[in-house]
TrEMBL record:
This is CCHC-type domain-containing protein. It comes from the Eukaryota. SMART domains: ZnF_C2HC. Residues 269-285 form the CCHC-type domain. Coiled coil: none annotated. Keywords: Metal-binding, Zinc, Zinc-finger. Residues 1-21 are annotated as: Disordered. It comes from Trichogramma kaykai.
């Protein structure tokens, strides 16, 4: 007698590979907002229905968030059904995005060349662009009102305060690149050339840069007016404060009585005016030129960097381009300039597409794996 055929059951503990588990990586690329939650919930159902049916590429215009959501849904379904490998997904993105997508990319800011080929970064930047639907500042609109309108739009889309700040910062980068704001600020504050990647700046620093460029003429005229009164104010301060200190044998450079010994303020730089050989509490200046904390001219005690966090060293009371921290000019892991220390390197959590190791960009990879295969 012949034994009936039995079905072959795979051994326990060994799950057969299934494509159903692969799209989770794709879904994780979607930012968490209300529209994306609905899209993420319906992706599995959409794949099963459309897998064997021809799907046409949705139209994409430069100012429609709904069309972008439909296009993105098609893109995720397409790379799943075609089983596009991860390293080719960005190429497929550029192939399908069309002329509208390329025109939008011209206004997007990328901190490095590798970011332009990173699918997660691309999707985030396009999400931000279509969140604001290509909104631009009107000529008759103040910056304060424009920033408030951006925050109002972001709050309706993002589901947390962190995402709101992230969306606003990305929108500022896009607008400032389009308006060539960074080039203008570099002419005003030449030391700004120390900053090579503007994505490392905080939204507060970005807003300050835009303010300085937008109202540069008004600020310059007010500074000129104050400078005319500066000599009179310095004499007044000298008469009221410095002369009484001399009568008490108190040094007017450091504020102490050091009885002929070397003044502790000798060789020290004042953090208020930037001059040498006196402490901040003894500074006679009422108008600060080329402030060592913000890089601009302003009235005493009116520094815009006060109580603001530096995006480079994470300390307060100065901006990144005035930071005195040790800087690496060309990092071996990312190729950019940043503060010394691996935690400050933008490639710390990056996965190399060449060797699949963490901690460096693909452009700085030293692996010989590909050459050995040849």
């Amino acid at each position: 007698m012949h034994k009936p055929a039995t079905a072959v059951v795979p051994p326990t503990g060994r799950a057969t590979p299934s494509l159903r588990h692969r799209p989770q990586a794709l879904e994780s690329l979607l930012p968490h907002d209300n529209a994306n939650d609905d899209l993420r919930a319906g992706m599995c159902c959409t794949r099963s229905k459309l897998k064997n049916a021809p799907v046409s590429l949705p139209l994409l215009s430069a100012h429609s968030r709904q069309e972008w959501i439909a296009w993105r849904r098609y893109f995720f379904t397409h790379i799943h059904d075609k089983d596009v490998p991860i390293y080719r997904q960005s190429e497929e993105f550029f192939r399908l995005i069309g002329e509208v997508g390329y025109s939008i990319m011209k206004n997007l800011y990328f901190g490095s060349i590798s970011d332009e080929r990173n699918l997660e970064i691309l999707l985030h930047k396009f999400d931000v662009y279509f969140t604001f639907c290509g909104k631009r500042k009107r000529p008759d609109e103040t910056l304060d009102n424009y920033f408030k309108s951006l925050e109002s739009i972001a709050e309706k889309t993002a589901n947390s305060r962190a995402n709101v700040d992230k969306y606003i910062k990305e929108k500022l980068l896009q607008d400032m690149k389009h308006g060539k704001i960074f080039e203008q600020f570099l002419k005003i504050v030449p030391i700004f050339s120390k900053v090579s990647n503007y994505e490392t700046l905080t939204s507060t620093e970005l807003k300050f840069i835009w303010y300085e460029c937008e109202y540069y003429e008004d600020i310059r005229k007010s500074c000129q007016l104050i400078e005319k009164l500066e000599p009179v104010r310095e004499v007044s301060i000298y008469q009221k404060e410095i002369q009484p200190m001399r009568k008490k044998n108190i040094c007017f450079k450091c504020g102490h009585d050091h009885s002929g010994r070397r003044c502790p303020a000798w060789g020290q730089r004042c953090w208020k005016c930037g001059d040498l050989n006196h402490f901040l509490r003894c500074c006679p200046k009422t108008f600060i030129r080329d402030c060592v904390n913000c890089g601009r001219n302003h009235i005493q005690f009116k520094c815009p960097a006060y109580a603001k966090e530096c995006s480079r060293c994470k300390k307060n009371n100065h901006f990144a381009w005035q930071c005195l921290g040790d800087v690496i000019n060309c990092c071996d892991y990312c190729g950019q300039s940043h503060l010394s220390g691996r935690n400050n390197c933008p490639a710390t959590k990056n996965i190399c597409n060449k060797c699949q190791k963490i901690g460096h960009f693909t452009s700085k990879c030293r692996s010989r794996r590909n050459s050995l295969r040849k």
